[in-house]
């Protein structure tokens, strides 16, 4: 296949959702369509789409320690679909946010009983900031949930994005008859056996189904027709450009658990989700995916993913050219040249050695300390540096110290390596040189403590400092006397001065007192 065709066949996306909305379940379904879960007995009862739990659990069990679930590749309908996992609440972190820098679109899964939940909103905002297309799947229609019109209104109000329902549920819970599918001009039925064994029936010119079918006897059908009419007349207009710009989200309904509506969603997703596009460098130049020169950037580093190997893997999103094993590349930051011979590609069932990979693909490089998050690598002579990855302002802070002074060395080594992974940020107090950790979520601290002990044999004490507001200032504005009991002056690991304010009041007070000092936040 030519490079052009290869790149055009890539669809790289992440699923964003609040825990329990059904991300894992829908991922299973997508892997299933792509044949990535293909062992006999994996799938029980085709109609219900119910999985044999034990088989999936084997894969699930490896989550977090295994590469395999970080990026999943499946082939579907001639496309190579790359699903990049965003860790759920258990390890919600900067890592989760940064993963969204490596994808070309996002699928937002919403529980129909709950609507927009806090984590969905946070992740949505990061996608929105990048202007990437967002596709919405409203899940769990096999249960009673909220009214679909109300959910659409909430989506638009809370997230500030226009919504365009591609299909519309006919009922829900026990009365879930199927989907009134405006995009495909058909209805899709949950109970084909009651309707002449039809999974799908076409709509006539008036938007109705011809013929005498069981589902049409229900008032639910009439209600769906009425709703659909309302949507056509009063709803948003569909615009492919707006979808591409992340200003309009196509909305789909279904039930991941029973597998209903998932393929209908996937087919339309494939139609509209973008293939890899050009990426901006630091100098504002655009690197096209079809350029011959190989380029990519590192968006995540994970240490010791496989305890048996004690390896570190740097995840690279390829932006242009073609990757071939053994190729020579340069790391822009350090100017270090290296041969990429130890690489891995991600499949749902095992790690496979990468053969060729193109823009949109994600490869893993075994790392011995050469890479940092945000690094660009390139082949050939012309140095390329992509725009820096955003850093996210941490909200929670803990003081950290080694319990045993004899173990200082492993403590420092562990901290340095884990901080380099980017899941947690490190600060040093300006006056006393104590270590402070900052993170987006509480669980990061526990994971950090656990890993320091298990991987570096360093026991630490953590003293929670609660939530603070972190604001950076310019070096030339720094006066150590600005520090008071309500703001703690620190330096970050790049030596930049940063204040940790007790609360918004303390920050405003500071701003009033030092009007010339600019207080900067990350994202
Ligand atoms: P997550 O990755 O987003 O956290 O969600 P996950 O897929 O694990 O789903 C969370 C729970 O919601 C699971 O139930 C799952 O079976 C259920 N679920 C997912 N999709 C649907 C759906 O379409 N309909 C219904 N009714 N339930 C759905 P659980 O009880 O927490 O776990 P389990 O005991 O079923 O494994």
From TrEMBL:
<dbReference type="GO" id="GO:0005525">
    <property type="term" value="F:GTP binding"/>
</dbReference>
<keyword id="KW-0547">Nucleotide-binding</keyword>
<comment type="similarity">
    <text>Belongs to the TRAFAC class translation factor GTPase superfamily. Classic translation factor GTPase family. PrfC subfamily.</text>
</comment>
<dbReference type="GO" id="GO:0006449">
    <property type="term" value="P:regulation of translational termination"/>
</dbReference>
<dbReference type="InterPro" id="IPR009000">
    <property type="entry name" value="Transl_B-barrel_sf"/>
</dbReference>
<dbReference type="GO" id="GO:0016149">
    <property type="term" value="F:translation release factor activity, codon specific"/>
</dbReference>
<dbReference type="InterPro" id="IPR004548">
    <property type="entry name" value="PrfC"/>
</dbReference>
<feature type="binding site">
    <location>
        <begin position="85"/>
        <end position="89"/>
    </location>
    <ligand>
        <name>GTP</name>
    </ligand>
</feature>
<feature type="binding site">
    <location>
        <begin position="139"/>
        <end position="142"/>
    </location>
    <ligand>
        <name>GTP</name>
    </ligand>
</feature>
<comment type="function">
    <text>Increases the formation of ribosomal termination complexes and stimulates activities of RF-1 and RF-2. It binds guanine nucleotides and has strong preference for UGA stop codons. It may interact directly with the ribosome. The stimulation of RF-1 and RF-2 is significantly reduced by GTP and GDP, but not by GMP.</text>
</comment>
<feature type="domain" description="Tr-type G">
    <location>
        <begin position="8"/>
        <end position="277"/>
    </location>
</feature>
<dbReference type="InterPro" id="IPR032090">
    <property type="entry name" value="RF3_C"/>
</dbReference>
<dbReference type="InterPro" id="IPR005225">
    <property type="entry name" value="Small_GTP-bd"/>
</dbReference>
<dbReference type="Pfam" id="PF16658">
    <property type="entry name" value="RF3_C"/>
</dbReference>
<keyword id="KW-0648">Protein biosynthesis</keyword>
<dbReference type="InterPro" id="IPR041732">
    <property type="entry name" value="RF3_GTP-bd"/>
</dbReference>
<dbReference type="InterPro" id="IPR038467">
    <property type="entry name" value="RF3_dom_3_sf"/>
</dbReference>
<dbReference type="InterPro" id="IPR000795">
    <property type="entry name" value="T_Tr_GTP-bd_dom"/>
</dbReference>
<feature type="binding site">
    <location>
        <begin position="17"/>
        <end position="24"/>
    </location>
    <ligand>
        <name>GTP</name>
    </ligand>
</feature>
<keyword id="KW-0963">Cytoplasm</keyword>
<keyword id="KW-0342">GTP-binding</keyword>
<dbReference type="GO" id="GO:0003924">
    <property type="term" value="F:GTPase activity"/>
</dbReference>
<dbReference type="GO" id="GO:0016150">
    <property type="term" value="F:translation release factor activity, codon nonspecific"/>
</dbReference>
<dbReference type="GO" id="GO:0005829">
    <property type="term" value="C:cytosol"/>
</dbReference>
<protein>
    <recommendedName>
        <fullName>Peptide chain release factor 3</fullName>
    </recommendedName>
</protein>
<dbReference type="InterPro" id="IPR053905">
    <property type="entry name" value="EF-G-like_DII"/>
</dbReference>
<dbReference type="Pfam" id="PF22042">
    <property type="entry name" value="EF-G_D2"/>
</dbReference>
<dbReference type="InterPro" id="IPR031157">
    <property type="entry name" value="G_TR_CS"/>
</dbReference>
<dbReference type="Pfam" id="PF00009">
    <property type="entry name" value="GTP_EFTU"/>
</dbReference>
<dbReference type="InterPro" id="IPR027417">
    <property type="entry name" value="P-loop_NTPase"/>
</dbReference>
<dbReference type="InterPro" id="IPR035647">
    <property type="entry name" value="EFG_III/V"/>
</dbReference>
């Amino acid at each position: 296949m030519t490079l052009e065709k290869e790149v055009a066949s890539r669809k790289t996306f992440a699923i964003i959702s609040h825990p329990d909305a059904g991300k894992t379940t829908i991922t299973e379904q997508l892997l299933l369509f792509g044949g990535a879960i293909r062992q006999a007995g994996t799938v029980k009862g085709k109609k219900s789409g119910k999985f044999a739990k034990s088989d999936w659990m084997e894969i699930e069990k490896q989550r977090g320690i295994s590469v395999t679930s970080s990026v999943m590749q499946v082939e579907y309908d001639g496309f190579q679909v790359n699903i990049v996992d965003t860790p759920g609440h258990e390890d919600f972190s900067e890592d989760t946010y940064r993963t969204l820098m490596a994808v070309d679109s996002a699928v937002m899964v919403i529980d129909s009983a709950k609507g927009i939940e806090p984590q969905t909103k946070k992740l949505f905002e990061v996608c929105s900031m990048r202007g990437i297309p967002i596709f919405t799947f409203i899940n769990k229609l096999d249960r009673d949930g909220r009214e679909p019109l109300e959910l659409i209104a909430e989506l638009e109000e809370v997230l500030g994005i226009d919504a365009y329902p591609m299909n519309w549920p006919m009922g829900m819970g026990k009365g879930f008859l199927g989907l009134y599918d405006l995009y495909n001009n058909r209805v899709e039925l949950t109970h084909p056996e009651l309707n002449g064994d039809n999974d799908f029936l076409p709509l006539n010119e008036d938007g109705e189904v011809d013929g005498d079918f069981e589902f049409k006897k229900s008032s639910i059908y009439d209600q769906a027709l009425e709703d659909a009419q309302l949507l056509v007349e009063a709803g948003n207009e569909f615009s492919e450009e707006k979808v591409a710009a992340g200003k309009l989200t196509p909305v789909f309904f279904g039930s991941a658990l029973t597998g209903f509506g998932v393929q209908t969603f996937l087919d339309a997703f494939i139609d509209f989700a973008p293939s890899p596009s050009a990426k901006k460098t630091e100098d504002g130049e655009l690197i096209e995916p079809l350029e011959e020169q190989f380029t990519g950037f590192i968006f995540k580093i994970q240490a010791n993913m496989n305890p048996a190997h004690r390896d570190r893997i740097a995840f690279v999103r390829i932006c242009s050219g073609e990757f071939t094993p053994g190729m020579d590349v340069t790391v822009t930051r350090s100017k270090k040249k290296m041969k990429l011979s130890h690489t891995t590609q991600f499949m749902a069932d095992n790690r496979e050695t990468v053969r060729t990979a193109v823009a949109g693909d994600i490869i893993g490089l075994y790392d011995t300390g050469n890479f940092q998050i945000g690094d660009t690598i390139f082949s050939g002579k012309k140095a390329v540096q992509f725009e820096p990855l955003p850093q996210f302002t941490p909200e929670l802070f803990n003081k950290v110290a080694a319990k045993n002074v004899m173990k200082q060395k492993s403590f420092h080594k562990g901290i340095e390596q884990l901080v380099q992974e980017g899941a947690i940020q490190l600060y040093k107090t300006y006056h006393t040189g104590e270590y402070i950790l900052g993170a987006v979520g509480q669980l990061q601290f526990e994971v950090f403590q656990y890993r320091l002990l298990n991987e570096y044999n360093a026991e630490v004490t953590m003293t929670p400092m609660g939530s603070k507001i972190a604001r950076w200032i310019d070096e030339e504005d720094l006066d150590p006397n600005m520090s008071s009991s309500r703001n703690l002056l620190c330096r970050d690991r790049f030596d930049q001065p940063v204040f940790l304010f007790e609360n918004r009041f303390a920050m405003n007070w500071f701003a009033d007192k030092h009007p010339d000092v600019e207080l900067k936040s990350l994202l």
